[in-house]
Amino acid sequence: MKKTKLFAAIGGVGLVLASVFLIAADHVDAPAVAGTTTDIADLYAFEGDNPNNTVLIATVQGPLAPGDQSNNAQFDEDVMIQFNIDLDNDFIEDRVIQAVKRGDSMYFFGPAEPAITGLNSTVATFATRTAVKISTADDVQTAVSENGMSVFAGPRRDAFYFDFNRFNMVVSGAVAPEGFLPPAEASDFFENLNVLALTVEVPNALLGEAPVHIAEAAGLVDPGVLPSTYNVWATANRKQ
Amino acid sequence: MKTYKLRLLFVAICTSLLFVGCNDDDDNGNIIEVATCDDGEMNGDETGIDCGGSCEPCNEALDFSGTYVQEDSMGRPGINTVFSGSDAVKNDFNNTIPSDRAAFTPIFENTLEFYHDVYALSLGLTEDDIDYETNILGLDAPTLAFVLAQTDALQVAPNAPTSYFTPGGTFLTGRNLSDDVIDVSLILMFGGEMGNRFDGNNGTPQLTSDGVDAGDRDFTGGFPYLETPNL
User: Fold this and answer.
1) Which positions carry the signal peptide feature in this UniProt record (chain B) (predicted)?
2) Fewer C-beta neighbours within 10 Å, C or N terminus of chain B?
3) Which of A49, A191, A194 sits opposite B229 (nearest CB)?
C-alpha cells in the first residue's frame, strides 16, 4: 500500500513537472495561453553586432513543426507583443517597443514612454512607427526606422535547445534515476522545430540610461561587480 | 525682404541645376519620372501621399485603437513554467505585472524544495534527506526564490558583453541565443555551492546538465540573428 502510494506520488509529480517543462523557456506554458496566439515561447536580449545596439527577440506560438504547421502559422492582428524596458529597478516599464500586425505587415512602435503601464496597454501611435512586411521562409524582409531601429517579423528556426523527452523520464523519478544522459546520447527536442519571431535591434541611446544592476541594488553582489543593466521582459496582450 | 529675395534666387538656381541634371542624364530626350514612397507627392500607384499601393498602407486605413490586456509574460527563461508548480498559479503569474509578484516568492521556494523531494524519492530516500543547498551564486533558497519571482526580467547590459551566466565569469547581463539556459538553470537549482552537487559523479544523478548544446545552429548571420526555418 505504501509502495503504491509512493509510486502514485512520483507519477503525479512526473505529470506536474512534464506539463511544467514543456517548457523551459516558456515554450507552451500556462494552460490559459498554451496553443494560442499570445503564447510567448522565448525572450532573448543581447548586445548587437554593433555594440551600441541592443537586440531584442521574442518568439511566439512555438514550437511549430516544419511543413504545414509552420507554413500556416500567422501573427494575430488582435495581439500586441510588447518589449518592456525598466530604467529604475521598480519593474514597471519606462520604455516600450510594441509590435502589431496589420495586413501583410508588422508595425513596430517606439521605443516610447508608454501612455499607461500595467496589465492594460494602448498602442503608442504617437511614437516612431516602423513597418516591415512579414517574412516567409524564402522571402526575408527587414526594415530600418528613421530612428535607426531595425525590425523583422516572421518564421524562424527555434533557437531553444533542450532534451525534453529525457526530462520527462527524469521527472518520472524511477524511470531514470541516473538523471540526464551524457552528450553522446542526449537529444535536442527542438532541433528541427520553428517559431514565429520578432527581432528588433535598437540603438541604446533610444532606450536611455540603464540603472545599477538589480543584484547590486538588492545587496546580493558587491558594488561594481556587475554592469548597469536594463530590466527587460516581454508581454503578449490581446485587444479587448 | 532682402533675405527673402536671396532665398528665392537660391531656390531658382537649385531648381535650374536640377533640370540641367535631369537633362544630362536623359539621353533619349524622354523625362523619366520615378515615384518613390518618400518624395512627398502622391504618384505611382499610391492612394495617398507616399502611402498605399506599393508603399506602406496609409495611416487612415490602420486602426491601432483600443485596450490590450496582458495574457502572457516572460522575463528569464523557464521561470513560470518551472517554478509556479500548478496550472492555476501559472495563469496567475502571467496575469500579474513584474512589480507585483511578492506572493510568488514562497510558492517558488516550495517548488524548489519539491523538486529535491522528487529526486530524494527516486533515489529511494525520504523527502527530508535531500534539500536545496545554497548555489554557486551564494543564494540560499529564500533568496533564490526572491530573485526568481520578484526580479523576473532579463538584466541587459548596454555597455558590456552579454552572458546569461558564465561560471567564474560574468552573469545576468542578458540572454544570447547560444546561451545554455537549461544547464544554467539546472546548475543554479541542483549544483550547490560548487555547481556540481548532482553532476552524475560519485553516485549522484546527472541533474546539472541535460547533455545538449546548440548543435549545428548558427547565430552568426547578423540581423535578424535567427536562422531560416526548418522546412
Assistant:
1) 1-20
2) N
3) A194
Q: Which stretches of chain B drop beneath a pLDDT of 50?
A: 1-32
Q: Do A46 and B176 touch (CB under 8 A)?
A: yes
3-state SS record for chain A:
CHHHHHHHHHHHHHHHHHHHHCCCCCCCCCCCCCCCCCCEEEEEEEECCCCCEEEEEEEEEEEECCCHHHHHCCCCCCEEEEEEEECCCCCCCCEEEEEEEECCEEEEEEEECCCCCCCEECCCCCCCEEEEECCECCECCCEECCCCCEEEEEEEECCCCCCHHHHHHHCCHHHCCCECCCCCCCCCCCCCCEEEEEEEEEEHHHHCCCCCCHHHHCCCCCCCCCCCCEEEEEEEEEEC
Q: Mean pLDDT, chain A, as a whole number?
A: 88
Residues of B within 8 A of A10 (CB-CB) are: 118, 121-122
- Whether residues A118 and B65 touch (CB distance < 8 A) is answered with no
- pLDDT recorded at residue B5: 43
Shortest distance, CA B48 to any CA of chain A (angstroms): 17
Closest residue in A to B157 (Cα–Cα):
A229
